[in-house]
Write a structure and sequence with these properties.
Length: about 250
């Protein structure tokens, strides 16, 4: 059995300058001019208003593609890891086996039915930046985003098997083999100990992991300065920061 499985959330990347999703500065508190984040971060928004969806995504996430890993990412590089983060910092830190269960900022897929597993490809952010040449006027950015993601300016309708879609799990999508859900479930089933670091426990994968860990009598540890009370007996809550946790592991 896998001895320890680490499941990380946005708190792990806060030190890299990436806001947490549900904190006071979090992305799920920051919408667009006319829509909430919960409305924008959906497959429906991508399909119905791809220019607005892509601009929202670009404005809030893409600037962090140059973020650097912190010591916690390097420490996790040889660990069995599932992360909810899309920042790809674990990849940069050298973890070649981790599962980015919610996707990756640096990748896209062809727009497709959710049940179909396709290969990912490099996101066109560099191409987009070259085309913009420093022009950040929203109307210009939206037009160039449509071009970069192969979506017609006239119809503004993404086309199956042609248009591109960010490789990110949206609110109205489900875990699939694109996001290695079967691999993730196998790791959770095998774990003797599950350590959650920097997560709010408001996403499905954490609920799934908790249920499986309880059923298998695996040890459960939560690393967070302000941990969520899970209402589960026997959980080891460690009210410390990521940095304090790492110092204790040295």
């Amino acid at each position: 059995m896998t001895s320890s499985l680490y499941i990380t959330g946005a708190g792990v990347s806060k030190g890299s300058g990436i806001p947490t999703f549900r904190g006071s500065d979090g992305y799920w508190r920051i919408g667009s001019k006319n829509y909430t984040p919960q409305e924008m971060a959906t497959r429906a928004a991508y399909r119905q208003m791809p220019d607005e969806f892509l601009f929202w995504y670009y404005s809030r996430f893409v600037k962090y593609r140059f973020a650097d890993p912190k010591p916690i990412h390097y420490w996790l590089a040889d660990k069995t890891l599932i992360t909810q983060n899309i920042d790809a910092l674990d990849k940069k830190a050298g973890n070649h086996t981790y599962i980015p269960i919610h996707g990756r900022l640096d990748l896209v897929t062809v727009y497709h039915e959710q049940k179909v597993a396709l290969e990912t490809r490099k996101a066109p952010w560099d191409v987009l930046q070259n085309s913009l040449q420093g022009n950040e006027d929203p109307s210009i950015v939206k037009k160039n985003l449509l071009d970069a993601f192969r979506i017609s300016h006239k119809t503004k309708v993404p086309m199956y098997n042609d248009s591109l879609k960010p490789f990110v799990l949206l609110f109205d999508e489900f875990y699939s083999e694109m996001y290695r859900i079967s691999d993730a479930l196998k790791l959770i089933e095998k774990a003797k100990k599950v350590i959650f670091i920097g997560t709010s426990f408001k996403v499905n994968i954490t609920a799934v992991a908790l249920n499986i860990a309880k059923r298998n009598n695996a040890l459960i540890e939560v690393i967070d300065p302000e941990p969520v009370d899970l209402g589960i007996n026997g959980v080891n809550y460690r009210k410390i920061t990521v940095e304090e946790y790492l110092d204790g592991m040295k």
